[in-house]
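Slide 14.
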Amino acid sequence: MIIYALLAVLAGLLIGSFLNVCIYRWPRDLSVVKPRSFCPACDKPIAWFDNIPLLSFFLLGGRCRNCHQPIPVRYPVVESLTALSFGFAVWLLGPTLAGVKFCVFAAILIALLFSDLEERILPDEFTLGGAVLGVLFTTFVPPNTAIMPLLLMSVHIQNRYFIAFAESLFGAVVCSVSLWIVAVLYQKIRHREGLGLGDVKMVAMIGAFLGVYNALLTLVVASVLGAVVGLLFIWFTGKDATTYELPFGTFLAFAALVVGFASEVVFKFWNGSSPF
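Slide 15: predicted structure.
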């Protein structure tokens, strides 16, 4: 199992490097295919030996070889987080479809976390595209806290793939509509936008991957965490609480990662097998 986890770590480093490209380019409506990687400061193409995940950043001292401008620390952080998430997912779930599902889920969440933190943008490629992937994955790897079997019991539907598909779709719709209603009510009461459609689409993606129960739990955790961290940030920086835009997608991504992996650990422990 350890060898598979190590291979997943290496794959995570490569995927993390690609996520950095997406995080920078998609909010700016740039292609992630062409041109090849370049320095945002001087626009010079980056040589392959300066584009090795993690290693190149430290060998270059965190600066561009051409213009010597600092390379954002986000680059090694995203690569490291993706590698650790991939390794943990495969260590926990094995080289299975469930492991692949959580690797994909983690990659999408990490990209959204930093995209919202830096640009206050949640690209549709990650949110809507992720929701489609979530439904496809969850159809074959249903969440551990599914509620659709209980809802469909009365109509005697027993096809497990259909039930898992319904769970994923139900989770996406219920959670996104719930957040959209909250956003509309907030705007009506406060006369300003509190949540964007990007957050609603992101919650649909989380619901598609995690199902209704864990997605709603994610919303609760993200809301509490966002309120506490946001208030502390405003207090320490002296920003205006009435105009400061909280990157709620960042807290949603963090909460979804924690809830998603924690639910798998608890499920394994509950069924009598060691989660590690």
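Speaker note: The mean pLDDT is 88.
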